[in-house]
Amino acid sequence: MALTELAASHALEQGQLVHVRDRHWVVADVDVSTLPVDELAAHRRDPQHLVRLISVEDDGSADELGVLWEVEPGAAVLETATLPEPQVGRFDELLTLAAFLDAVRWGAVTSADPRALQAPFHWGIEIEDYQLDPVVRALRMPRVNLLVADDVGIGKTIEAGLVIQELLLRHRARTVMIVCPASLCLEWRSEMMEKFGLEFQVVDAAALRDLRRTRGIAANPFKISPRVIVSIDWLKRSRAMGLLREVLPPDAHSYPRRFDLLFIDEVRQCAPPGRGHYATPSQRTEAVREIAPHFEHRLFISATPHNGYPESFTALLALLGPQRFAPGVVPKPDTLASAVVRRLKSDIKNPTAPPACPNAASSPSRWTTPRTRSRSTPS
Question: Which pLDDT tens digit goes with each residue over 232-275?
């Protein structure tokens, strides 16, 4: 049905999906013109409609557009999916009905049942049972604040990808920012696309120049791309922080949050380097501390989050969850166990044996007791 026909019949409503200017939009608001109708206009005697649209494209999720419905060329309303119409005297086969009910059940259980994981069925590699533990832990949290500190080789990349994809599938997250070392930006983009089918945009100085060539000098990548990858050393610079301050509200505790999920790889690089008595925040620490309150969920990973100084580790935990942790304050074992996943290869190979690693649930003192002279990470 043509757009003008819908406008004339007053069928246009909020939430409808439309196609305008070769892009897909959702109708956010419809205003009817209060001007008197031109009786001499032969082509249009109905009042015009001013429609405000919000983009649903991946590269323009924050874009808005206002159009005059009746004069917008090539615009059309897209049909929405509906349930099949019942037919009198005709019944489907039992297997067809069962398949339909299964489809409805799986579509509803995604957000209702935390035990029914969807992410393992939306990627192309084999996973191990133990790699599902972080995503199950994350789903149990009303607001994800999780530090995955598994040993090297266990698969923290896969575990983090599972958490990200599960939150996206359950509509608990839409915007995601991955912060990692500069050398890993392209690798993370490739991993998320090849293994999870998620497209991320790497944001750096070169990407910013290209964006402003195509979209104007005022274009902001954090307004356009819902899923971005940023290096920690570019993020801490004044230029990147200035772009983020353009989109962040002045009140860090305002709700809803401006972004959904903050994921930091090698988060130990963001922890202040403690020296046994205090932890001096670095530029990386200050950058993460400023943006973290604007994210609904926080997921940190690092094989070695503890450098031997409890001041540094408690400051790192405060970045993860400032409501539960504070710099310089030794956390309670149960609080630490709820926020940290720590396993070694020996635990995976022999799961029935007592845990020998400095697990948050088994021996939290190893995480918070300073070492004499060693600055090596726990193993």
Answer: 999 999 999 999 999 888 887 777 788 899 999 989 888 887 66
Give residue-wise pLDDT tens across range 353-374: 444 444 433 344 445 443 433 3
Helix, coil or strand: residue 158: helix
The C-alpha atoms of residue 146 and residue 342 are separated, in whole angstroms, by 11
Phi, psi of 374 (to 5 degrees): -75, 140
pLDDT digits (tens, 9 = 90+) for 52-79: 888 877 556 557 888 888 888 888 888 7
Give strand pairing partners of 27. 53
Cα–Cα distance, 2 to 75 (Å, whole number): 7
For every residue of 44-102, DSSP letters joined together read --SPPEEEEEEE-STT-TT-EEEEEGGG-TT-EEPPPP-PPPP-TT----HHHHHHHHH
Question: Are 368 and 330 in contact, with CB atoms under 8 Å apart?
Answer: yes
Give me 210's structure tokens: 């290209």
